[in-house]
Specification:
This protein is mostly beta strands and about 90 residues long. The protein has strands at about 10-15, 20-25, 30-35, 40-45, 60-65, 70-75, 80-90. It has one domain (about 10-90).
Length: about 90
């Protein structure tokens, strides 16, 4: 994803529950924002698609699924993060 600053954005989800956004180009990237979620990250999608514009105040929104069956709505902005569970998988016997 390319933003107005001319830098690429790389979104990385980890098995430890970390979700980070890195900005840069070529071989030089720096962490722009991050959050810790409950359970390893197994899927991430940008809200509105990969080319969606940033919302007010430079906020980007994502949905992140974890191995615990929880889907989080995550808003990342200038090093700040706000994850909110929006769906939880349940199973019945």
């Amino acid at each position: 994803m390319l933003f107005r600053s001319g830098e690429d954005q790389l979104l990385v989800g980890g098995g430890d529950g970390s979700l980070g956004v890195f900005e840069g180009s070529g071989r030089s990237y720096r962490k722009a924002a991050g959050v810790e979620l409950q359970g390893g990250v197994s899927a991430v999608v940008a809200m509105g698609g990969p080319d969606a514009a940033r919302g007010d105040g430079g906020v980007r929104a994502y949905l992140a699924g974890t191995e615990r069956g929880v889907i989080f709505h995550v808003e990342l902005s200038q090093g700040q993060a706000e994850p909110r569970p929006c769906s939880r998988a349940t199973s019945s016997p």
